[in-house]
């Protein structure tokens, strides 16, 4: 990248078997290249490529197996060079890393040092599926780009200031304190970004807006935000609490775990797998993707219909709770894969609430529009909105802001 070119930040979201990345300008939001490494550490007999890279108007694919995160990023960096992006040049201002759990320690975007990496690693007991994978991404990127500042942006940060009553579990405080047990909340980067966009769309100072954000993707979470500060959220110690998700149960009586351990003889690993991987829509209907769920419902599949019913019921329960918690609400916003694309979910989540000032306009709701928009009728008491989330842009902006 030559001098004078727009500022570029590389955003890396490193998961256990995948790495998603984008090279973008934090000011304009323009993405100049992006891609994904898949099936890291798995044997690759045939089928889809392990790395797909889009840049310079072209698509690049890599088919070979990817042994680990470092190997994946090396392939990615080669593909960047082939698509005309020199990451080792001076144009790359920073690398922004999504980190899932910041615990009590991290609640701001943080410049990565050895000590920061060690602390993120230490938090792995709170996020065993996520933080170790995040660290692998960070370490690989640091080795490949030793001279570029690396910034960690935490999924829990936006919820760090939750009121005590909202973040405290009603268990023995000594046990809770000894093990870091409290509600942390996740998807914070998305809730923060989307709530900021909502204030803009309403033409108001964020400090004056009370709002509910529904992030409905594969993972799903709701948040209540008063004047720009989160006052409640549906995810807790881990991203397992709250709404029904693609493969996660969300809220469940903790007695169910005890019962399964005592009467079904299930161990911790089996219960973990049950609740995180084999529950939610998948557990109820056999599919975790909402589009497939819709197809099953259309064929009259009773299990799929029940799964949809449970999903909507849980969502409405949180909506009711947050309406009461906030008292006065200016906006309810849908975001992420399901929230942005599924008009039926939006209509069903808010059906029959006109007396509370909440109405979804059927024409606006089903319009083929991908931009941030109102789906409530003009002049509604509570604005109902669809706002595309953009966690990569939010991470890029946070990283750029920190190094400035
Ligand atoms: P993740 O949590 O993995 O980031 P996403 O935000 O991409 O998840 O959301 C994935 C969910 O969104 C899936 O259930 C998928 O069916 C749904 N979804 C994504 N795109 C569409 C679309 N165009 N129409 C309907 N549903 C969609």
UniProtKB/TrEMBL annotation:
Residues that coordinate or bind ATP = 20, 215-219, 289-291, 337-341
Q: Note the superkingdom of the native organism.
A: Bacteria
Q: In which pathway does it act?
A: Metabolic intermediate biosynthesis; acetyl-CoA biosynthesis; acetyl-CoA from acetate: step 1/2
Could you tell me the EC number(s) of this protein?
2.7.2.1
Q: Predominant location of this chain? A: cytoplasm
UniProtKB keywords: ATP-binding, Cytoplasm, Kinase, Magnesium, Metal-binding, Nucleotide-binding, Transferase
Listed GO biological process terms: acetate metabolic process; acetyl-CoA biosynthetic process
Q: Where does Mg(2+) bind?
A: 13, 391
**Cofactor(s) needed for function:** Mg(2+); Mn(2+)
Where found, per UniProt?
Cytoplasm
Q: Does the keyword NAD apply?
A: no
Q: Where does substrate bind?
A: 98
> At what residues does the UniProt record annotate the site feature described as Transition state stabilizer?
187, 248
Q: Which residues form a coiled coil?
A: none
Q: How does it assemble?
A: Homodimer.
Name of the protein this chain belongs to: Acetate kinase
Q: Tell me the organism's taxonomic lineage.
A: Bacteria, Bacillati, Actinomycetota, Actinomycetes, Mycobacteriales
